[in-house]
TrEMBL record, chain A:
Membrane topology value: Peripheral membrane protein
One CC-aspect GO term: mitochondrial outer membrane
Organism lineage string: Eukaryota, Metazoa, Chordata, Craniata, Vertebrata
Keywords: ATP-binding, Endoplasmic reticulum, Kinase, Lipid metabolism, Membrane, Mitochondrion, Mitochondrion outer membrane, Nucleotide-binding, Transferase
Alphabetical list of SMART domains matching this protein: PI3Kc (SM00146)
Annotated ranges, domain PI3K/PI4K catalytic: 553-819
Gene3D superfamilies: Phosphatidylinositol 3-/4-kinase, catalytic domain, Phosphatidylinositol 3-kinase Catalytic Subunit, Chain A, domain 4
Residue segments, region Disordered: 1-43, 88-135, 285-337
Entry's localization field: Mitochondrion outer membrane; Rough endoplasmic reticulum membrane
EC class name: transferase
InterPro entries for the chain: ARM-type_fold, Kinase-like_dom_sf, PI3/4_kinase, PI3/4_kinase_cat_dom, PI3/4_kinase_cat_sf, PI3/4_kinase_CS, PI3K_accessory_dom, PI4-kinase_beta/PIK1_cat
Biased composition (Polar residues): 310-331
Name the UniProt record assigns to this protein: Phosphatidylinositol 4-kinase beta
Length: 834, 668
């Protein structure tokens, strides 16, 4: 069974290119089904062509499942074809041209719908025609909806999930091609979960799209493989092994899904005038406006593009070879670089570290071990590896291992690492940066550690070539070295604007003039206390909580500091990223929560209600490992309280200034808006385990909830604590200015607005959760009423007045709730969290 | 002759028969030492010779007794040397092995006999003057290609042993004239290659590092030694790492042995350290491990730190603690090396360095290991070797304390993990040393170095505004106790040492704190505590002042040294004279007999403003370390001692023939 699967798999891919090459010749008229020009007259000549394609498609579907083709309604199939033609080579085009359609979509589409069934029926299989007649009105309504520009990914996903009609599912499967990658990517967990757990028709509808995207992108491939693994894990082991999800995962990881062009690339260049376009090249062609002349132009453009990317590939290949030549140990066994292997190995090593850390008893040992493991990892970098949580293409070049910290956790060992990357155009094709040895730091840091000489160091580094000429620099070095400590050079101090260094100048001048210079002991003492007071409020190092210090340091400062110390720091595309590596934790719930947060965020943005939340990226690697994008410039309330020993309000005053200052007011506003956002989230998702260690406070006053391990139907240890809707302590209310203040009313108003907005788009939220409920053992779906209860919390039946009352009750309840307090006490007793 | 017979490997040792059966190889040796050309009658003589198992002892003994017949057998010896070199190029590894061993015996034997002879005579005897240059060039080239080739590691190991043997044949390495050829035909790159190679590094132990350290010391002050030059510019990460790791292994092994021996008894004076850093320093009393053998390793570390700027980074590279005893030559857990430029197809690199899953495994780095080692060494400096090693340790620390990058690393506050204890560790170590070595046989030299290291660290901290969260009080009281000791042993110490120099350095450390405390003290309280400590111990300073005043007013050899101390004491005396009356009046006013610390601090705090201090010159300047001329004699002696030790311990027999034969049996 598996063998056939593997053999089969290239088929759809081969399918793609020939069918496309055929269609391309006629595409000027066909590729845009929604344009008014595609009238009866113009569809007729297309028909024979479609027939040709049809055969191809039939083959394709036969390969997947013979029945699908028969069952598929013809009209939909035709649409499919048109869409596929349109989407496959001009994926982004659809979106961009839609608004251009004059007179709104409804008219032309309606006309088209009327025209098409008539025009196409003669050429179609009779059985499907009969099927179609069976429910004609529904189909056409659906079709109208599907064709309309209102039809977005959310709807597609929802129909894919709800519709039992294979034709519809197949149609939507193909319709997926027309959405932008980002839009679909948001629903990837849903898509794949459906693929794994729903019936075959849905799976068959989704697969071509997934396979297509996998061919295009390494990161998409890995993303799919990871998610498929994670969401298959709850199946029984026997079914899991033969499940569709597992097979697709194997297929992806076997690296069979190379880009279509990879093998036939050279032939494609010479033989076929058309080749599947790279997304950005199509974007440029689409942007140039009209289609017909563009088509004439595009091949040359595309070949140009292609040859360029070919060149980069060959460059990176040759550099690989060069490297292996100098290092006979690394044999290059294949001509092509393995697509997925570097990244998989990178992730694997990070996970391996996490697993090994978990065996160490003390936090200090863990930290120590982590650092040395990472320093080893560094020896394998740079590579064609990247952090999946990042928003831009890059190559990882270095892990500043000494900056890594082990996070607070009782028995697992999540850790936070910073990662130096070089931004690049496309991590798959851009060449991997050359390694710069660690000890080069010395040459770039000649005036190292003079705090106020940052600029000079930067400048020196800037003029530095990638492979520095060592000898020259060595000379420069020896000069500094002798000069610096032995005799303090006055110029050095002239540039630094502090008063203390005045002494060293004095001490030199006094050599000449033998006049004794007197200093007041009181001045020295005073300067000492001034200096210490000036120092920014940093947290004191605590071996039991190493992350507190690391997280308190402002991000910009950290970036600057690490950049200065890095051998890659001088490169213009240098960026710093960070990531939390979780090993032994199931992040699927986190991912679900993150999706809901993102959805609500976009809903609130759309409805223009200023609730503030900060969803963070979650990467699920398996059912018990993953990565989390850390929120920068934020520390937990627990750490704030422990380090500052102040109440939250006093801490706000300390950090942002007096209650009337602008800084404080804006921080307070941020606090209120974020509190409102997260209060609603906590209520809707029933987020539990809300102790101060799980609530962050950022440098602008926002609170950010993290750790969504207990949501919906699950609660920690089922202790029955935390019965309040959300966490609203007296301290929170104090920061808002007390229960009678304007800001507190603003808070309640925001919640009301937020709830009304969320209610309006409830389906978009429910859908995310509902699909993920399939085939899962996640504790958040424990019991049978999870979805019903979630739906109920949106209170569709209430009037706005009633809603307002509800909010009041919720807020009052939470404020008065003793359980919150109790829960904090419980946490303190068990986990030492304040 | 009977002794020779014995060495010749009698087959029937107990037999009373006079006629003994000699090994074939012995007979062949005898032929070489005759007048005749051995190949005259047996054209395949040399070929066969290298197929025979070498009898090292016999050959060496034969060479020693060659004296009278030098003239006539020289041609044959030259020929033997020549054919040895030729045999090194043979395909057959057995021949190569035998040739290497024969060469070793040649070098040794010739030198043992002719200890007094000039280097030129020896060269002449071995290779003949006219041919010497060519022969040595060939030899070095052959060795180089053997070391760099893909051949057996045992062969490489043997090559290294031969080199060690050659380098240590004379007591004074600089008198080993043959090394001149080793300078011209450098095998530096080959040694580095061995060091950078993950797989071979562990097989060869310390040999490559020791060899390098010794070669660097060949006529280092008199001529341009290419090994010095080359070592100073190495910047290849894997190589430096490899070197660091070999050194670390040796020191770790020593530390481990020490710990094993002292498992039970907990040392008193290192308990602070132990509590600070957990199990890092496990200290104790008397042990006599091979400190001597480690001299060579320390020398290598010194040369690397002193000569090579890039090596400092290696100090900080953290590795898991390697225990050679438990994890022998397997492909070690710590194999960073070979930078994997890209994540190319074979990603075995990624999987390999999975560290062993031993929670007890301490991660460490060379610097920590070195500090541990130093702390163990410094506990007992009575033995001369230990004293020398302790001195060398302090010299290395001096170099580290002067290096900008090392300092940056030592003081990097952002390094999470106990690395940030390093900086304190160095000071801890120094303080412990100060406290524990005030004895009759006063190690003045070590004390000077120790105080200077502290000074250098303070200068760096002052310059870069680094505030260590260290309780400086410990240092102050250690220093005050030191002054006290100097005072009470003035007469005995003055016979041997210039105690005023040390006193001046100590007083200037206080001056650093007094004048520049604002730039590096961790809290304003600590500045108050400094004054408190000075006032509390004012008697010591008073006595010191009296003493130096007395000496400086007399005429004598210490006059000038003492008067410097008088001047340096000016601020300390000002502080004492300023605060003492204030404290007295406070006591009187409040009718308290004994002031508490808090009360004294209160007095100090409220009376700063009326105190004026004098700015002293050059407190933050120091003399940079330079090996020549000050330390040259020390290093000469050290290298001599190392040479003797290495010569004694290098044995080609450890690489037993059996092992080699076994290894090559498949080939032959």
């Amino acid at each position: 069974m598996e063998d056939t699967e593997l053999e089969i798999s290239p088929a759809p891919s081969d399918q793609n290119s020939p069918s496309l090459s055929i269609s391309s010749s006629s595409s000027p008229s066909v590729s845009l089904p929604s344009t008014p020009s595609s009238s009866c007259g113009s569809t007729q000549p297309v028909a024979p062509l479609l027939g040709v394609i049809n055969e191809g498609v039939c083959e394709l579907s036969l390969v997947i499942d013979a029945e699908v083709a028969q069952r598929a309604c013809h009209e939909v199939l035709q649409k499919v074809k048109l869409q596929q033609v349109g989407s496959d080579d001009v994926t982004d085009l659809h979106e961009q041209t839609d608004p251009v359609v004059p007179g709104g979509p409804s008219g032309p589409i309606a006309a088209e719908e009327e025209a098409k069934p008539e025009g196409l029926v003669p050429g179609t299989v009779k059985s499907t025609r009969r099927r179609q007649k069976h429910n004609p009105s529904k189909q056409s309504w659906l079709l109208r909806l599907f064709e309309s520009k209102l039809f977005d990914v959310a709807m597609a996903i929802s129909y894919l999930h709800n519709s039992k009609e294979p034709g519809v599912q197949a149609y939507i499967g193909n319709r997926l091609f027309s959405f932008s990658h980002e839009e679909v990517d948001f629903y990837l967990p849903q898509l794949l979960n459906m693929y794994i757990h729903m019936d075959e028709d849905v799976g068959d509808a989704i697969k071509p799209y997934v396979v297509h995207r996998c061919r295009q992108s390494i990161s998409f491939s890995l993303q799919c493989a990871w998610l498929l693994g994670a969401y298959s894990s709850d199946m029984h082991i026997s079914t899991q092994r033969h499940s569709r999800g597992t097979k697709l995962r194997k297929l992806i990881l076997s690296d069979e899904l190379k880009p279509v062009g990879a093998r036939a690339r050279r032939e494609a260049l010479t033989l076929t005038p058309f080749c599947p376009a790279l997304p950005h090249s199509t974007a440029t062609t689409a942007a140039s406006g009209s289609l017909v002349p563009d088509h004439g132009l595009s091949p040359s453009k595309r070949t140009h593009q292609r040859s360029k990317s070919d060149a980069t590939v060959s460059i990176s290949l040759s550099s690989n070879l060069k490297r292996t030549a100098s290092n006979p140990k690394v044999e290059s066994s294949q001509d092509e670089p393995v697509r997925l292997a570097p990244q998989r190995e990178f992730i694997k090593s990070l996970m391996g570290i996490g697993k090994r850390l978990a065996t160490l008893p003390t936090k200090e040992q863990k930290t120590q071990r982590l650092i040395s493991e990472l320093s080893l990892l560094n020896h394998k970098l740079p590579g064609r590896v990247w952090l999946p949580t990042a928003a831009f293409d890059h190559h990882v070049v270095r892990v500043p291992h000494t900056q890594a910290v082990v996070l607070n956790s009782k028995d697992k060992a999540p850790y936070l690492i910073y990662v130096e990357v070089l931004e690049c155009e496309n991590f798959e094709t851009s060449s991997v940066p050359i390694r710069i040895p660690e000890n080069r730091i010395r040459s770039t840091r000649s005036v190292e550690n003079l705090p106020d000489c940052g600029m000079t160091a930067e400048q020196r580094a800037g003029s530095f070539s990638v492979v520095p000429n060592y000898d020259n620099d060595d000379e420069a070095w020896s000069v500094d070295d002798i000069g610096e400590l032995q005799v303090e050079l006055p110029e050095l101090h002239a540039s630094s604007c502090d008063n203390i260094s005045q002494f060293s100048v004095d001490s030199i001048t006094s050599l000449e003039s033998k006049e004794p210079i007197f200093i007041a002991a009181g001045d020295i003492r005073r300067r000492l206390s001034e200096q210490l007071a000036q120092a920014p409020t940093t947290f004191r190092r605590d071996p039991e909580d190493p992350s507190a210090v690391a997280l308190k340091e402002p991000w910009e400062e950290k970036v600057r500091r690490i950049r200065e110390a890095s051998p890659y720091g001088h490169l213009p595309h240098w960026r710093l990223l960070s990531v939390i590596v979780k090993c032994g934790d199931d992040l699927r719930q986190e991912l679900l929560a993150s999706q809901v947060l993102q959805q609500l965020q976009s809903i609130w943005q759309q409805e223009r209600v200023p609730l503030w939340i900060r969803p963070y990226k979650i990467l699920v690697l398996s059912s018990d490992s993953g990565m989390i994008e850390p929120v920068v410039n934020a520390v937990s309330l627990h750490q704030v309280k422990k380090q500052s020993q102040l109440s939250l309000l006093d801490y706000f005053l300390q950090e942002h200034g007096a209650t009337t200052s602008e800084n404080f007011l804006s921080a307070q506003r941020n606090f209120v808006q974020s509190c409102a956002g997260y209060s609603l989230i906590c209520y809707l998702l029933q987020v539990k385990d809300r102790h101060n260690g799980n609530i962050l406070l950022d440098s602008e006053g926002h609170i950010i909830h993290i750790d969504f391990g207990f949501i919906l139907s699950s609660s920690p240890k089922n202790l029955g604590f935390e019965t309040s809707a959300f966490k609203l302590t007296a301290e929170f209310v104090d920061v808002m200015g007390g229960p009678d203040g304007d800001m507190f009313n603003y808070y309640k108003m925001l919640m009301l607005q937020g709830l009304i907005a969320a209610r309006k788009h409830m389906d978009r939220v429910l859908q995310i959760v509902e699909i993920m409920q399939q085939g899962t053992q996640l504790p958040c779906f424990h019991g049978s009423s999870t979805m019903r209860q979630l739906k109920e919390r949106f209170h569709m039946s209430l009037t706005e007045e009633q809603l307002q009352l509800l909010i009041h009750q919720l807020v009052d309840g939470s404020m008065r709730s003793l359980t919150t307090k109790l829960y904090d006490g419980f946490q303190y007793l068990t986990n030492g969290i304040m | 002759m009977s002794q020779l017979d014995k060495k010749a490997g009698l087959l029937r040792r107990t037999s009373s028969s006079k006629k003994t059966l000699k090994e074939k190889v012995v007979l062949m040796y005898d032929e070489i030492f005759s007048k005749e050309d051995p190949a005259k009658n047996a054209p395949r003589f040399w070929d066969e010779l290298f197929l025979m198992k070498v009898n090292l002892e016999y050959l060496e003994l034969k060479l020693e007794s060659v004296d009278e017949e030098v003239q006539h057998s020289q041609a044959n010896i030259n020929a033997l040397f020549h054919y040895c070199i030729q045999a090194l190029g043979e395909e057959h590894p057995i021949k190569v092995v035998n040739a290497l061993q024969t060469l070793c015996a040649l070098f040794r034997g010739v030198h043992q006999k002719n200890r007094s002879a000039s280097g030129f005579d020896i060269i002449n005897l071995l290779m003949g003057f006219d041919k010497a240059e060519q022969r040595m060039k060939d030899l070095m080239e052959r060795l180089d290609s053997l070391l760099c080739g893909e051949g057996s590691e045992s062969l490489k190991s043997l090559c290294l042993k031969l080199m060690l043997c050659l380098v240590t044949v004379t007591d004074n390495i600089s008198q080993n004239t043959i090394l001149e050829y080793v300078m011209i035909n450098s095998i530096f790159e080959a040694i580095l290659r061995i060091l950078s190679d993950v797989s071979s590094k562990h097989l060869h132990g310390y040999d490559p590092v020791v060899l390098l350290a010794l070669l660097v010391n060949y006529r280092k002050y008199e001529s341009v030694n290419p090994y010095i030059v080359k070592l100073s510019i190495v910047d290849d990460e894997p190589t430096l790492d490899g070197m660091g790791m070999v050194i670390q292994q040796a020191l770790t092994e020593y530390n481990r042995q020490f710990r094993d021996k002292q498992e039970e008894t907990q040392g008193g004076f290192f308990s602070t350290l132990t509590s600070m850093v957990g199990s890092m320093f496990i200290a104790d009393a008397d042990e006599k491990l091979s400190v001597q053998t480690n001299e060579a390793i320390l020398l290598a570390l010194y040369e690397a730190v002193h000569l090579n700027r890039n090596f400092i980074t290696v100090l900080a590279q953290s590795h898991p603690e390697i225990d050679i005893a438990t994890t022998p030559t397997t492909n070690s857990p710590t194999t960073p090396t070979t930078p994997l430029g890209t994540m190319t197809p074979t990603l075995d690199m990624m999987n390999n360095p999975e560290l062993p899953l031993d929670p007890n495994l301490q991660t460490t780095n060379l610097l920590i290991t070195f500090l541990k080692y130093a702390s163990i060494l410094m506990q007992d400096t009575k033995d001369e070797h230990r004293l020398n090693s302790a001195r060398l340790c302090l010299i290395i620390l001096t170099c580290i304390a002067e290096d900008q990058y090392a300092n940056a690393f030592l003081h990097d506050d952002n390094i999470n993990f106990r690395v940030n204890l390093h900086k304190m560790l160095v000071i801890y170590l120094m303080v412990e040393f100060i406290v524990t070595h005030m004895m009759k046989d006063f190690p003045m030299d070590l004390y000077l170095r120790c105080v200077q290291i502290i000074h250098k660290l303070l200068c760096y901290q002052k310059k870069c505004r680094i505030r260590l969260h260290y309780t400086w009080r410990e240092l102050w009281s250690a220093l005050i106790n030191l002054v006290k000791f100097l005072l009470s042993n003035e007469t005995t110490l003055l016979v041997k040492h210039n105690i005023f120099h040390l006193a001046l350095l100590v007083v200037n450390l206080f001056n650093m704190f007094i004048t520049y405390g604002d730039t590096f003290l961790p809290s304003s309280n600590s500045y108050d505590e400094l004054y408190y400590e000075i006032v509390r111990m004012h008697q010591v300073f008073d006595n010191l002042y009296c003493m130096v005043l007395r000496v400086s007013t007399n005429t004598g050899q210490w006059k000038e040294a003492a008067s410097k101390v008088t001047y340096a004491l000016v601020n300390i005396r000002a502080i004492i004279n300023h605060f003492n009356p204030k404290i007295e009046s406070y006591t009187a006013l409040n009718h308290i007999s004994q002031l508490s610390e808090e009360q004294v601090l209160e007095v100090v705090r409220s009376n700063y403003d009326t105190l004026t201090l004098k700015l002293q010159d050059g407190l933050d300047q120091f003399e940079r370390y330079s090996e020549q001329p000050k330390e040259a004699a020390f290093f000469k002696e050290l290298v001599r001692s190392i040479s003797l030790n290495v010569r004694k311990n290098v044995s080609l027999n450890t690489m037993s023939q059996d092992v080699l034969l076994k290894e090559f049996s498949t080939i032959s």
